[in-house]
Amino acid sequence: MMALQFKLEQYPPICGGGSFSYYPFAIPPIGRQRNQSLQAQALPSRTQRIMESISVSGEVGGAGGSYSYDALKRLDQLWSGICSAQTDVLEPQKVVSSVPGLFSQSDVAGKAVETFDVIVCGGTLGIFIATALSCKGLRVGIVERGVLKGREQEWNISRQELLELVEVGIITEDDIEQSIASIFNPNRCGFEGKGEIWVEDILNLGISPAKLIEVMKKRFDSLGGIIFEGDSVSGISIYEDAAVLQLAKAKILSSRLLIDAMGNFSPVVKQIRRGKKPDGVCLVVGSCCRGFKDNSTSDVIFSSSAVKEVGESEAHYFWEAFPAGSGPMDRTSYMFTYVDPHPGCPKLEELLEDYWDLMPNYQGVSLDNLEILRVIYGIFPTYRGRKYIDFQHEDNVLNNALVSCYCPEQFGDASGIQSPVSFGGFGSLTRHLGRLSAGIYEAINGDLLDSNNLSLLNPYMPNLSASWLFQRAMSAKKESNVSPDFINELLYVNFRSMQRLGDPVLRPFLQDVIQFGPLVKTLGLVMITKPLIIPSIFKQVGVPVLLDWSGHFFMLGYYTFLSTFVDPVIRPLVNAVPAKMKYKWRRQLEAWQYGSGLDYKMSNPNTTKAERGMGTGGEAWAESKSLP
């Protein structure tokens, strides 16, 4: 770290020096202006100096898998293109195309290297669904552009969510224990200048993706799965009886079903969206540093006190922080913000510049005393409305951008089956993996691979649509005409209300599950205790958004009613109907259950004293720190 600090100090401020002191009342000569401009352009930013001083190795695919400054600039360039694009842009390159006739009777059939039941494109999180389907006896292949391995940066999750993988049967509890890199309690929800809430067992495990993905690879291989590493998809042809992949290295693979898990910027997704600009984006930056002496607790969310100007825009910063498993004094902190893409939006590098200024005060430590291990950054786009694909009615491609309420890919980070507030793909995957793997298996067995039947695997879920309002409320806007501390105040009031209503209200929300009853109780208590905040909510989100949200709120209540009272009557009868009808009714019952958030399991896992941080004393301390 001393070497890093020395390197930073070698660069004077861009406006430093005495150039202008020689011309106190006049403009410097043109030549000197040009030289100064060139010198200013040549001086790297603090972010560049920091990132180029860190040894970068082992970059992998998936969100958060790249750490280099060059990768940051590429992502910023992509982000700038999204912001500057008009609503209607040119059609992206066509990757998926429809071919009439049967693949088995085509000239290409004899060139196919391998034939599968399912091919998953993108393996970082795609390997989980691939392994689940392999466990059911299907022949599954994975295509991964690079080497299939997990990133260094940990995934944070709760044990309750992680055990869903055990229930699906793709991993054992011993495998989970081997993959846990860190355990910490209690966990804070903080609001700068307002107060804080302390909870237990929320995102309190740090999972090593490198270890977990390696376990999954061995499991997948033992089940007969095949991984095509170091190869990418160059084209997808949809026949009447197969989906055929043309790989960059000239290999041809065929399957009955293709699952796209290539991430936010999948070429399939680009074609589906036809270049449409995202409705909202979460920008995330952060770092993993060594040197934190007090490192036993985490921040699930910490809200800054007020909106801040960043370039030509405004942003409200939120924070997360977790102990890292790489060392007792290692800690990862994230700073993120929600924006609507438009010209002038802050770049990731601009956010990182703010991060270096603000993080030390947030974490109570000087940057000089920290060794920066890696820098983290990412973009998570989200889309409103259900977007259907129309590749001349190409079936056999499962990608939830076909029917997703929000995000563009079925399996992976920022997946479309979780809210636009958290943007977390791994926790969402664990909750939906059993439902999706069972549904896909049933669709393949029943030869129900047309687009209508596949769309039932990713139905409209009103709890996700309702959460769009929260994303809008947490996005800073210059024209909203509300006080700079409105967002922080709104969050504080809502979290304080949820805490007073108890764990059945607070804990599902903290784990990204929106339920009708808890939502009604929270809104009611907020209106009673803080009625003057209501007009500011209208100003912040706008009347059209509130009206749209009201429809989803009604449907959330309707789905809750159906899942609570109608499901128990229908479920015993489903097994008696024909296979096609059974498939549709099972998907409908799942839509009611998951769309109302009633899939959430309230539990009190038997945690050890080490997991609960300080044991009984730690619990008492956490309680004493709660809001009144």
Automatic annotation (TrEMBL):
Spans annotated as Disordered: 605-628
Family annotation (InterPro entries): FAD/NAD-bd_sf
PANTHER family: LYCOPENE BETA/EPSILON CYCLASE PROTEIN (PTHR32098), LYCOPENE BETA_EPSILON CYCLASE PROTEIN (PTHR32098:SF5)
Protein name stated in the entry: Lycopene beta-cyclase
Species of origin: Rhododendron griersonianum
